[in-house]
């Protein structure tokens, strides 16, 4: 197999790199979207492959942090824009680019790498495991809530998208302290990805921002179904791309607001956590449907001691974990001593209590998968009976991790 040498793209190669992404993702960006992509890319974090003067493979990374159980954060390389031309697939280009991205992340001192996988079969081999999950739900308009909002829950006001970033950013930060898995945002990300009022096409409203003292919803109203000249739209959907609510009052107020918008037939809530408390608010369970549920953030652990020290642990546990990995920095036996006062991971020659793969350890890092679940699925092998049961209450989080941003 050819030995590829991924390298950062030069500024004048950026368009050629994004062209490769367009081909690989079967898309055509408008000139405005291309310009936004160009301005967002962190050029020094790109790793491309050039063959005979032409870019044939692309990858990039966002410099981010991700929230952890217990309210802390850690730097994370957000791997993105992974694309290989269809003429060059299965010749090791992704493998070479991934190695280059991971090396760069390590050089930058990032203990974690994360990504959204286009296909679930690709990234396990590189040590990534699904660490958070997401769901999309639909609620009928006017669905009664168990506890309807009252004036005491506080008012909601609509704010212009152009003014929203400084108002929403502190609430988003509070959400990060509340749940693991939420990725940090730059000002450009807020402006170009979250608050960009670019119509998706068809019949739709402008993007609206509903603001509460303890939360917000970003939504538009979209007519779906047959919209031909003589036809009425069959559905008018309030699509909430993002809803952050930090108190019971904010949850009642924002859900009550969205489900009572006139002329709409239903509300769709996108990118919700799988234990969404908003679902508990709907009085009749049949008024809420889960439309879609999938993996969200895939995580790879680059620095285990840093992760174990930074995340919160709900209970004491001490055990030796043997990690199966092709990554020498992770493979081998580690003694974990964790508890509410902190955690430490140190190399040990001691006998293993539990054996598991790097990707499966990554899937429990944020609390999205339980150690007991891994054991039950045969993904963890217990060498000391009861060791997994001891780790389980320590690693669990009271609330499911949540990743709002698709990148
Ligand atoms: C984080 C993100 O950006 S996610 C987006 C990923 N990009 C896409 O989905 C766009 C369309 N697809 C592509 O561009 C390419 O097919 C990629 C990037 C998925 C794979 O690139 P390639 O250069 O073909 O991968 P590479 O040759 O390095 O494969 C490495 C291994 O992964 C396997 N693999 C690669 N892609 C896939 C896949 N889609 N499904 C299953 N296995 C795969 C290969 O078979 C190979 O296995 P082996 O080591 O046992 O031989």
UniProtKB/TrEMBL annotation:
Pfam families named among the record's database cross-references: Acetyltransf_17, Acetyltransf_9, SCP2_2
EC numbers for this chain: 2.3.1.-
CDD domains noted in UniProt: NAT_SF
Xref: PROSITE patterns: GNAT (PS51186)
Residues spanning the signal sequence: none
Molecular function (Gene Ontology), one example: acyltransferase activity
InterPro entries cross-referenced by the UniProt entry: Acetyltransf_17, Acetyltransferase_Eis, Acyl_CoA_acyltransferase, Eis_dom, GNAT_dom, NAcTrfase_Eis, SCP2_sterol-bd_dom_sf
Assigned keywords, A-Z: Acyltransferase, Transferase
Active site: 123 (proton donor), 407 (proton acceptor)
Highest taxon of the lineage: Bacteria
Residues the record lists as binding acetyl-CoA: 82-84, 90-95, 118-119
Occurrences of domain N-acetyltransferase (ranges): 1-150
Subunit structure, as described in the record: Homohexamer; trimer of dimers.
Family, similarity comment: Belongs to the acetyltransferase Eis family.
Record's protein name: GNAT family N-acetyltransferase
